Amino acid sequence: MSTTYVIYIAISVICFVIALVFHEVAHGFVAYKLGDPTAKSQGRLSLNPLKHIDPFGTVLLPAMLMFMHMPVFGYAKPVPYNPRYFKNPRRDDLLVGLAGPCANLLLAVLTAAVAWIIWLVAGPSIYEWVRNDAFAIFYLDFLPQLAVINLVLMFFNLIPIPPLDGSSIFAILIPRKYLPKYYEIQRWAFPIFMILVIALPYVLHVNPFSWYLSLTAGNLANLLFPFPIW
C-alpha cells in the first residue's frame, strides 16, 4: 500500500468524521433551542466523535462504498429528539431535519473560502507553494475532500426518504393524527433504502445515487472552489 493512498484514506476518515459530527450536533442543537432537552441530556451536543459513531454507518458503510469506488457517504448514530417538546411539531421537525444539511453546507462554504483566500493571497506563487508536500496535502487534498464530503453528506441526507433529513418535509404535509405512525415507519425505511443503495449498482447495473451526487454535490463543489475538485 503506497504512502499516497494511506494519506488519502487518513484524510478521508478525518473529513468524514468532522462532517458527521457537525451534522449530528446541529440536529441536537436546534432541537434543544426549540425546547427539546433529549440530545443534551444524553450528551449528544458534544463534538467528541465517540459520542456519534455508528459501527455500520460510520465505519463499515463508507469502507464498502470506497472499496466499490462509489461516492463515500454514511451516517452517525441519529441524535435523539422528542417532537412532543416542540411547540409547533410540524415546523420544528422540519427545522431540526434541515439543521444537519445546513451545517454541512456551511462547512463546505467555509472550506472553500479558505481555499479562495489562499489562492488570492498566493497569486501566481501558488504553484511554488504546492511544491511543499505539507502544503500540497492541506490545499490539494484536505480542503477539497472536506468540502466534497460535506456536500455529499448534505445532498444524500436531503433525499426525501425516511429517516433521511429530507423526509422531514413530509411531516408538514401529514395530518397530525398520523404523525406517530409516520415516525414508526421511519425506523424501518432506512435499512430498505441502504439495501437499494448497495444492491442497485450490482444487480441492475444502474447507480442513480452516484448520478444524483455527481450532479448536485459534484457541480456545487466545482463551483465553490477556485479549481476543479470533483
Structure description:
The protein is mainly alpha-helical. The chain is 69% helix and 0% strand. It has nine helices and no strands. The two termini are 24 Å apart.
The best one-word shape is: globular
Could you report the average pLDDT, rounded to the nearest whole number?
86
Give unreliable regions as ranges. Answer: none
Terminal-residue CA separation = 24 Å
Oligomer: single chain
Gyration radius (Cα, Å) is: 19 Å
Strand content: under 5%
Overall helicity:
55-70%
Secondary-structure element order, N to C: HHHHHHHHH
Largest beta-sheet details? none
Number of helices: 9
Structural class call reads mainly alpha
The total count of strands amounts to: 0
Key words describing this protein structure:
single chain, 230 residues, mainly alpha, 9 helices, globular
Please sum up the structure shown.
Helices cover 69% and strands 0% of the residues. The protein has nine helices and no strands.
Write the layout of secondary structure elements.
Blueprint lengths: L2 H31 L4 H4 L13 H13 L21 H34 L3 H4 L3 H25 L10 H6 L5 H25 L4 H17 L6
Helix pairs in contact: 1-4, 1-6, 4-6, 6-9
